[in-house]
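Dear colleague,

Following up on yesterday's call, I've attached the two folding results inline so they're easy to grep. Please treat them as preliminary; we haven't cross-checked anything against experimental data yet. The first protein's sequence and structure tokens come first.
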Amino acid sequence: MKIAHLTAGTGNFHCGNCHRDNALVRALRADGHDAFLVPLYLPLVLDEPAASPDAPLFAGGINMFLQQKLPVFRRTPRWLDRAFDATGLLRFVSRFAGMTRARDLGEMTVETLRGTDSHQAKEWNRLVEWLAPLQPEVVALSNGLLAGLAAGIKKSLGCRVVCSLQGEDSFLDSLPEPHRTEAWAGLAATAAHVDRFVGVSRYYADLMARRMPLAPEKITVVRNGVSLDALVPAPAPPPVPTIGYFARMCHGKGLHLLIDAFILLQQRGNLPGLRLRVGGAKTAVDDDYVTAQEARLLAAGVRDRVEFLPNIPAAEKTAFLQSLSVLSVPATYGESFGLFVIEAMACGVPVVQPDHAAFPEIIHATGGGALCAPDDAGSLAAALEQLLLTPGLAADLGRRGRAAVETEFSAARMARDFAAVCRGI
């Protein structure tokens, strides 16, 4: 099948959705499909080779913003639009402008869900015109915020449209009113034009089926998978007990809860030499939050036992995960999947996650970790301590997690299931 996959980039930080989409397209290509990935808004930031490194970027964030706010930019010549779409400029601006913050994007989100009938019609029509001679059999949309394109794509290209659902609810719920209500209504209206929605977990598929709402036959679950080329277990456990965190350094991912649990464990004193390593994306808007966490560690007298490693290079990701005894990202919101969980498991690292959202589904499917009470630093500390004090149990969970990722949560398995959805519509 010829599959065009449209994916929104972030410009300057790693994003789980981008990693998932890139791994999916690479695995589809390895399986013999003519699949290619098209970046939207901002350049992709990846930790593995790009699936389609030569694909042009469409709907650049600067052009989208200007065309939303100033009608004159809806009629500017292509040479000027192209200047605003320069990769270097987009990466630079994304570092300072908060171009991916939900509270700044309410009006634009509502318009985007109108697709080729919106203020950004010039950008979307250019994308459709570029796709037309390629004649894709399927256009895959990375998330529901792009579902407004479905009507225009089907009208112009006559192909099938598949739309993944992965984390839209938290973004839409963070929009100010009246944009929140308008955006949810706009997303629901797109369902008539999307042939099939794909939820990245059973939890999230059921949640979005209720909230949009969707008929059961309109949505299929295809669990996320990861490429296993670089994610391998360490040859030996770390020399000292080490807790790890690897996700965006923000409140929603629960870093403050993990720091609470770490301080509790230090106060108990049952784990001499215990360390905490914090890695993952950090943007300018996260600086105050991270500074506050460092101040709390300093006040507790344990700052020297914690490493903060923001935005580590892709080549160092596996080494970071291999350095851990256990990983925990105690997210406080309804995580649709949590790619970091299976990345850690792929490296033979057990996880401790809150018993809500998609986490219990993944833990039960893999046997690669333990659950704790949500939003409860004491429960999290107890679960971490149990694993760290019983290294045999931790090693067994690590082996189970790795085996499950190889069979059930690999990019190859994800691609096969996704292709089956595309063939079946």
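Below is the second protein, in the same order (sequence, then structure):
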Amino acid sequence: MKIGSHVSIKKGYFGAAKQAVENHASAFQYFPKNPRSLSIKNFDRGDALECKEFCQAHQLQSVAHTPYSTSFTPVKEKEELTIASLFNDLEIANACGSIGVVVHFGSQISKTDPLASYHLMLEMLNRLLSQWEGESLILLENNAGTKGALGTTFEELVQVRSLCQYPEKIGFCLDTCHAFASGLWTAENTRGFFEKGKKLEYFEHLKVIHLNNSKFPCLSRKDRHANIFFGNGLIPVEQLKELITNPILQFIPLILETPDNEGISHKEEIEMLLKKWG
């Protein structure tokens, strides 16, 4: 089981990788730059190379996550800035040897044209990926459905990838809390969940899983993460285990985005997961 958590880059990318090892992790996620800004970061390539070499030596997998304000359905005046920011994120991820950059699926931008958001997403993806020649992928993450967010079904995720001019540069990130909140996975439909995902070839391109419990019930469309075993998580632990330990997901790295200050640290949660499920 490849498992880890989101870690800070306060001490650099190399420092983040070392923190992951200290947490007894075999994978980790990080923000490539300030998570509250789309500004371009002139990053330390030496630090990124040290991170990459350290990860290779310790069989450690990493993934980047775009800043909070990143969207494939931005307002018109932020389209160029968003593309430049995403390209910068890909450059950093590639330099660190990361699988890719996680990006949330887009949101509804028109009340009269239900396809407008998908058209804009494809336009943005094509413009971005036409310039990109690195190995790191864009990883589309399923949404919880909050505030008109799209990307709550396998069909949407797979179709956007297939209609893009560069599908080989796109993979997926599955968030268990989002899947539960949106109803994509209800904790009772696990068999059907895997059958549909296999039929649509979603799992062939799944690269990362965000392993989170949910503070709100199924179909709430609320994105609030809870710890796996502690706190007020509403996904039954046994159903979550059934999902994560399915052979289809056997080699996919698991990243905790759970609270680190509500009675259990990420290090403790990783150790518990390895003991119980690993």
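For the second protein, one point worth flagging: The beta strands are 3-6, 27-30, 61-65, 100-104, 137-141, 170-175, 206-211, 213-214, 225-226, 254-256.

Best wishes,
A.L.
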